[in-house]
Amino acid sequence: MWKTPSGKCDGGESACSTCKHKVAFLVSSPRNYWTELLDWIIAHQNNSPVRMFSILTPNPQVQGATLEEINQHWDWLEQNLLHTLSVFDNKDDIASFVKGKVKALIAEEASSRLAEQEEEPEKFREALVKFEARFNFPEAEKLVTYYSCCCWKGRVPRQGWLYLSINHLCFYSFFLGKELKLVVPWVDIQKLERTSNVFLTDTIRITTQNKERDFSMFLNLDEVFKIMEQLADVTLRRLLDNEGFDLDPGLQEPSQITKRDLEARAQNEFFRAFFRLPRREKLHAVLDCSLWTPFSRCHTAGRMFASDSYICFASKEAGCCKVILPFREVVSIEKMEDTSLLPNPIIVSVRSKMAFQFIELTDRDSLVESLLARLKQVHADHPVHYDTTRDEDLTSSVFHSTSMCGDHRFGRIEMVSSQNSEEREKEMSPQLHPEALVAGFRRSGSQSPDSRLPREQIKMRLWNDHFVEYGRTVCMFRTEKIRKLVAMGIPESLRGKLWLLFSDAVTDLASHPGYYGNLVEESMGKCCLVTEEIERDLHRSLPEHPAFQNETGIAALRRVLTAYAHRNPRIGYCQSMNILTSLLLLYAEEEEAFWLLVAVCERMLPDYFNHRVIGAQVDQSVFEELIKEQLPELAEHMQDLSALASISLSWFLTLFLSIMPLESAVNVVDCFFYDGIKAIFQLGLAVLEANAEDLCSSKDDSQALMVLSRFLDHIKNEDSPGPPLGSHHAFFSDDQEPCPMTDIADLIRDSYEKFGDQSVAQIEHMRCKHRIRVLQGHEDTTKQNVLRVVIPEVSVLPEDLEELYDLFKREHMMSCYWEQPRPVALRHDPSRPYAEQYRIDARQFARLFQLVSPWTCGAHTEILAERTFRLLDENMDHLIEFKAFVSCLDIMYNGEMNEKIKLLYRLHIPPALTENDRDSQSPLKNPLLSTSRPLVFGKSNGDAVDYQKQLKQMIKDLAKEKDKTEKELPKMSQREFIQFCKTLYSMFHEDPEENDLYQAIATVTTLLLQIGEVGQRGSSSGSCSQEAGEEPQALVPSPEQDSVFVDTHNGKSPRESQAFPEAAQGDWTVSLEHILASLLTEQSLVNFFEKPLDIKSKLENAKINQYSLKTCEMNRQSQPELKLSSP
Questions:
Q1: Start and end of every Rab-GAP TBC domain (predicted)?
Q2: Calpha distance 150→957 (Å, rounded)
Q3: DSSP bridge partners of 305
Q4: Taking Cα atoms as reference points, which of 282, 272, 264 lies closest to residue 370?
């Protein structure tokens, strides 16, 4: 193991002895037993080999566990270093040379660490065995990686092992006879951050709902934190954000996720965000190289990124140069002759007659081979032909003028998918608007040519000069110079085309000929909720602009929005999409506007336009953090920055279009298409800084809102070729002083100069961190709303109800972790009402019932849970929500005796009890259920009570008290009654009053059997049992309408007619009133059902045993011999 040369011999010179010495090196070993023992203890605790020998210079550089191992390093030094040291004159030069050589070896060793781990899988297999033995997870819980570290408990560190699996963070420590196990699901983590404490400067802190845990002393903390961040992000988005999250193909199956997959995902996400490429792009290679940059006449050092459809380059110096080469534009990729000045060069030629020279590429041959293979595949999927016939017509446009980069003219690139594509486009063209709306709807009152139009001409000249030097297609060199031109404002005639290039929507447009026209044909004329929302917002889209005061503009807007909703039904249509699309139609053709909208919604602003606008809320949180970093004085004065973050939501959703005059906001959109969301962040900071003094003096949030609204409403654009449009969104009182005007160009320039240092990597890291908080915030909101709805309807204490919710949600999550893949949306749908977002199936309910139900019946518990689930599953979708679950438990714990008996009664009649019930085939009679038993126990004949007369009176009283609006429950058959009695016997097992309860229930069941037989004989002979005061037996068979088990709408449930068949005349039956009255005659039974039950102890026990119950069940199922055969 190589070690950086620094300090002296470990343990001091006196603790080491020299084994051998040569020139500048010596071999050292521990001098005494105690030093050796201490090294062994520390190494054993870290599960690492003991390094007993060192090679010194005399500072430690190389360490080994045995003399043989250290001799191998010594031989390497003799062969590679010793013969070169003779050229140095003094020891300092020798030490400097050796240090540099060893540091290079360490860097090489670190870069190959992943490959080394894969070459030596024995250590990982050993860690996997320990992980499985220590935590007893099912096989589906895949271990991703593991690290040695310390977990801090107060000021005391516990040395141990951190295991990172696909669903959990686990820590294990065994030190001085004390064992510590810690399991934290990723979905419970609310904050993941790097912090410092009094003892350590770098710590990873995990924050859950109730606790904070610190982990430190990692060998490579950066690597650990990135892996943890990736696992938390993937798991949270997979389980909590299934509405808008698309997993990478390599992560579709969680059980197959590896450390390399996570590292690749992080690299892919950075690559796509940096170059703003489609989500489908997969990165294949990242190579250090240099690119010839003709504008600087030198090679620029940087990195090449090769993906499925692109070759990209980014300079090492931020902002110096960036190039995007779609394979669609590439003509050839060739190797050049290798020379000392141009090592390992390749030439990439593109259709705009430009050539890009890359040099210093490692493994050039295999790279070129793979690039040519992908180039061939892209051209096969999307055939390209080069059309020069339109050059004559396009020379008037700067986009089709002479390119000095290659001294050639170039025409328009067209993608051909079939021979009839041109004819199809001609057929589609009449119904699509052929040009940008601004060209056909020039605003009235335009400035005279000698005022603002010359400014446009100056801009055009600057842009034309830039195109000549840097290129004009998507393959242009993107440098700091073009950013400055964009900040000044893009000329109106170039705006739409440059938006297409900067967003790379031009590639989508050229790759899908006729796609938009087909979408328009398929979607127009269809009526649904989305189209109704679109129609409602059409006339609210830039109403001040003449282009949308005419049916031409409205129709184009309708087609684009409807076509996109048809293309992406998951997003469909969201508010603010109409405002953005209106602006796109002003400066781009209709089909171009559609593809620009695709680029914004699916790449540039991910997760913005969905039901919960998660992406916008994440960026709100990022913006709040940037305020604290960049504007500390404002953040210190305004302790609660949530108000500013809320105000900024419309800034992100509409790119300032809804709160700034249109002619100024369009310059903001220019910067957004070039720099992405970074431009919106820095402009927002510039706005706050310009108003910091007024914001600090504002008394409340409404005054702060007024300050910002007045400022934004008075932003002008001196370079706009048209007159300013009237604003309709500002509001301020007449007695206020007029707000000074601010030029948008000055504001954008200030934003770049003061706040433009944020990199894409920093923003993506902050997004990842805040996405965890936003998703957990949504979970907390869901939880609070569910509890607010449920609390008034149950008697369970709020804190206990919160614990029940956590158990319910955790049960759902555990099934998502380890059971067979199933559509998560069926059980977790964020778009549903809060109370219905989490639902569980019968197996999950059975486990929860076993954990928290007070009615534990031994082996009978599982059967009772099945019946309870069938009763609660009113809509028969095999899922129940939290409200139904808690309402049932509330009756069991807090209900009165008659409510508990009614629940038990309903659990033993259809639909809860079915013909195929597993426990319903027991004999009709057993020794405990006999009609020959006496009706009185423990009483003399003289004091005996006539139970039948007593029951008659009780039944009459119950009938009078019964609510007239309450529907009658069907009577219970003898088979159902037997099951009812069996449940009661099971409930009494191991009760302290078990014997008294058995005796009492024997009395009651004997009496009820006799009552049923009397009724059976009476009905057979035509009598109606009028002495007993019974209701007529031909009852209307329908379930009782209550708030727990039946929907609140009127009418029968869908299964009502088949669930409660009427009892045939002459059948043995008893009613709920019979059972309840009989049970009331026995005080021990009354005491059993009315005694207070402690739910807190059950909840504490459930929290401890929930995981073990699930894992034991999963482990039993994984053993074939223990599996039950299906019926």
A1: 489-676
A2: 70
A3: 286, 312
A4: 282
Answer yes or no: pTM beyond 0.85. no
**What residues does 26 pair with on adjacent strands?**
21, 56
Please state, as a whole number, how many other Cβ atoms lie within 10 Å of the Cβ of residue 654.
20
Report residue 1094 as tokens.
Answer: 């402690």
Q: What pLDDT, on a 0 to 100 scale, did the predictor assign at position 420?
A: 45
pLDDT-derived band at 590 (thresholds 50, 70, 90) equals very high
Asked if pLDDT for residue 87 goes beyond 50, the answer is yes
Kindly list the distances between the CA atom of residue 22 and the CA atoms of 81, 88, 455, 523, in Å, as whole numbers in the listed order: 12, 16, 77, 83
**Largest CA-CA distance found in the chain, in angstroms, rounded:** 126
CA distance 43 to 48: 5
Return the structure tokens found at 854.
């007070």
Q: Could you report the per-residue pLDDT of 993-1011, keeping only the tens digit for each?
A: 999 999 999 999 999 998 8
Residues 127 and 248 in one domain: yes
Four-residue CA torsion sign, 632, 638, 640, 643:
negative
Q: Is the dihedral of CA 752, 620, 676, 298 positive or negative?
A: positive
Does residue 544 contact residue 723 with C-beta atoms inside 8 Å? no
Contact predicate 229/768, CB 8 Å: yes
Distance CA 501, CA 496 (A): 9
pLDDT band at 8 (very low <50, low <70, confident <90, very high): very low
Q: Where does 714-797 have alpha helices with state H?
A: 744-755, 760-790
Cβ burial, residue 131 (10 Å; 0-12/13-18/19+): buried
Q: How confident is the model over 529-546, as pLDDT tens digits? A: 888 999 999 988 888 888
Does residue 34 belong to any structural domain of this protein? yes
Confidence check: pLDDT of 329 > 70: yes
The pLDDT > 70 percentage for the chain reads 72
- Mapping DSSP to helix (H, G, I), strand (E, B) and coil, where does residue 172 land? strand
| 1088 lies in the same domain as 951 | yes
| Measured distance CA(195)–CA(201) in Å, rounded | 7
Q: What is the pLDDT, as a whole number, of residue 722?
A: 64
Both tokens of 196, joined, read 């410092």
φ, ψ at 951 (rounded to 5°): -65, -40
Q: 884 CB contacts (<8 Å, ≥6 apart)?
A: 872, 874, 1044, 1045
Q: Supply 925's token pair.
A: 């009679």
Query: For residue 181, what pLDDT is reported?
Result: 93
Compute how many other C-beta atoms are within 10 angstroms of the C-beta atom of residue 509.
Answer: 22
Distance (Å, rounded) from C-alpha 12 to C-alpha 193?
Answer: 37
DSSP string spanning 235-250?
A: HHHHHH-TTT----GG
Give residue 832's region: left, alpha or beta (phi > 0; psi -120 to 50).
beta
Q: If you search the block for the tokens 């026990």, which residue do you land on?
A: 1101
Q: Is residue 549 part of a domain?
A: yes
- 311 vs 659: CA distance, rounded Å: 39
In the beta sheet, which residues pair with residue 395?
A: none
pLDDT at 80 over 90: no
**pLDDT at res. 534:** 93
Q: What is the mean pLDDT of the chain?
A: 79
**One-letter identity of residue 258:** T
Same structural domain for residues 106 and 130?
Answer: no
For residues 1077 and 969, state if they share a domain.
Answer: yes
Residue range of the domain that includes 202? 118-256
Instruction: Compute the distance between CA of residue 621 and CA of residue 766 in angstroms, rounded to an integer.
Output: 9
Residue 1091: phi and psi, rounded to 5, are -70, 145
Residue range 726-756, pLDDT digits in tens: 554 444 444 556 678 999 999 999 999 999 9
**CATH code for position 830:** 1.10.238.10
Domain match, 140 and 21 both: no
Helices and strands: H and E segment counts in the chain: 42, 26
Whole-angstrom distance, CA of residue 47 vs CA of residue 161? 9
CA atoms of 864 and 848, how far apart (whole Å): 12
Question: In this model, does residue 548 exceed pLDDT 80?
Answer: yes
Residues 131 and 103 in one domain: no
